[in-house]
Design brief:
By secondary structure, the protein is an all-alpha fold. It is built from 5 helices and no strands. Helix 1 (3-21) runs antiparallel to helix 4 (89-107). Pfam families: DinB_2.
Length: 153
């Protein structure tokens, strides 16, 4: 897959997510709408955390986010289980904004490289396959975020 194509697709998806949530009033960021398990705050932290896993850790790179993010935003977590303050909204938005550039800078010209984490839930074998899985994951959460925003009004 061409670098420009996959990095552009990744950036468009991420930009769409950020555009949808960045103006959400503070009092609605941690509300869990009826019928949902998580808040928008959790959604954006989850995207940052899972992208870190899929893009960097699958490829054998060091994590670029704090380890504590997994306890807040990893698979199976939810805000009702939080026992301390999660990472700040503004910090998460900033990290989401920078993460795509960091991925592009790290993997430009290396999309066909094999992943070092051969056993992964995505069954991905190369960097481009992992990034493609991540884009699909983000689009799934974009739909969830859109639905949550409608319910939140």
């Amino acid at each position: 897959m061409r670098d420009g194509y996959i990095f552009g697709l990744m950036l468009r998806t991420r930009s769409n997510i950020i555009q949808k949530v960045e103006k959400l009033p503070e009092e609605k960021r941690n509300v869990i709408p009826e019928g949902f398990n998580n808040s928008i705050h959790w959604q954006i932290g989850h995207l940052l955390t899972v992208t870190n896993l899929i893009a960097f850790q699958f490829a054998g790179k060091e994590s670029v986010i704090p380890e504590s993010y997994k306890t807040f935003f990893g698979n199976g977590t939810k805000p009702s289980d939080w026992t301390e303050e999660p990472p700040a909204w503004d910090a998460l938005i900033e990290e989401l904004t920078q993460q795509c550039k960091l991925i592009e800078d790290t993997f430009s010209g290396k999309l066909q490289e094999p992943l070092t984490m051969k056993e992964n839930f995505a069954k991905a074998e190369t960097v481009d396959e992992a990034l493609f899985v991540n884009i699909n994951h983000e689009n799934s959460h974009l739909g969830m975020i859109s639905a949550m925003l409608k319910v939140l009004g």
